[in-house]
User: Fold this.
Amino acid sequence: MVSKKTEERKLKLTDYLDKAFDVLPSNAFIHKGRTGIGGTHLELKTNRNSIIVVPTKGIITDKINAKDKNGKPEYPNLFPVMEGVTPEDIMIYLSSDIPNKKLITTPDSLYKIIKAAGGNTDELYRDYFLLMDESRTTK
Assistant:
């Protein structure tokens, strides 16, 4: 039997998730109450390899077009897995020496990442943090 540990952290309406976490926790469901409070941003800045699954292509476009205050790409290690990107393209990225690899995809294209890894999901889950972003639940 798996035990559940519940930890509650209350934030103000104006707070972002980095007020509660330095790094998003593993194997956790964060009931944010609202979107747009920096969960994806926090993971994109975290020093680990990540696969981020988001519900819409618009979120991917927003992240790849984001600029820092100097006009440079906000997330230089970000690899968008979208239409036109092949498993071979992803394989090249996965085998590169880029530190803290960040792949962002919709659920429809997650299979491309798995295929690029040779179908080895154990290796992917060992080497990459998987963020299922913007999911919704009801009580």
Observations:
- Residues 57-139 form one domain.
